[in-house]
Inverse folding.
């Protein structure tokens, strides 16, 4: 019995019966569920996600649904991009646009950051944080606004692998519709805290580390 229970606990969400899955949007959508590593909540409404490339993992909000039509995975599985829609527990809605490239090298990071600025059409001021494996650059876009459709706030994040090649680029926008019970200005701290956790959770899984490259020389 114990072994059977252990096997059940180790099943990926995509292998589980729908009725056994949490009543969480990311697990109820079949396409999104195929990327989820576990039904275990790792932080407040955040769950573990693994890329279709098999080269990185991160946390995503439980209210996420990945657009199947927007999903791109190159045949070599070294490039991936997708767009998500996120329903937040606080009544706001968000979108997350991810682009992963396994060839980007740390010595060109300033060029990559310029590319992010060009895509946003803004001179974004990035704040840099780092750990032993990656550098994280995060900045708020000035295009965040308050208009007739409601409030929006947008962020750009660039994550560069330091143990090998590879990068991730994220554009994240939260919208608070006109007449909703919540104002985006009230959510700034919560949203930035959530984004900080998502960025920090990003883990490059590729094995072509610089140390291994040095050993081969």
């Amino acid at each position: 019995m114990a072994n059977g229970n252990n096997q059940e606990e180790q099943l990926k969400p995509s292998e589980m019966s729908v009725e056994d899955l949490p009543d969480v949007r990311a697990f109820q959508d079949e396409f999104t569920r195929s990327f989820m590593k576990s039904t275990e909540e790792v932080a407040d409404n955040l769950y573990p996600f693994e890329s279709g490339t098999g080269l990185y993992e991160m946390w995503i909000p439980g209210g996420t649904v990945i657009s199947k039509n927007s999903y791109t995975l190159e045949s070599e599985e070294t490039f991936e991009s997708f767009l998500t829609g996120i329903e937040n527990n606080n009544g706001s809605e968000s979108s997350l646009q991810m682009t992963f490239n396994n060839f980007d090298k740390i010595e060109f990071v300033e060029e990559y950051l310029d590319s992010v600025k060009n895509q946003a059409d803004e001179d974004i001021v990035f704040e840099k944080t780092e750990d032993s494996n990656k550098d994280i650059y995060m900045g708020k876009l000035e295009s965040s606004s308050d208009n007739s459709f409601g409030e929006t706030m947008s962020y750009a994040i660039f994550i560069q692998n330091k143990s090998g090649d590879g990068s991730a680029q994220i554009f994240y926008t939260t919208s608070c519709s006109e007449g909703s019970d919540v104002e985006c200005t009230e959510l700034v701290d919560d949203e930035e805290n959530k984004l900080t956790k998502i960025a920090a959770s990003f883990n490059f899984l590729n094995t072509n580390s610089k140390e291994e490259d040095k050993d081969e020389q």
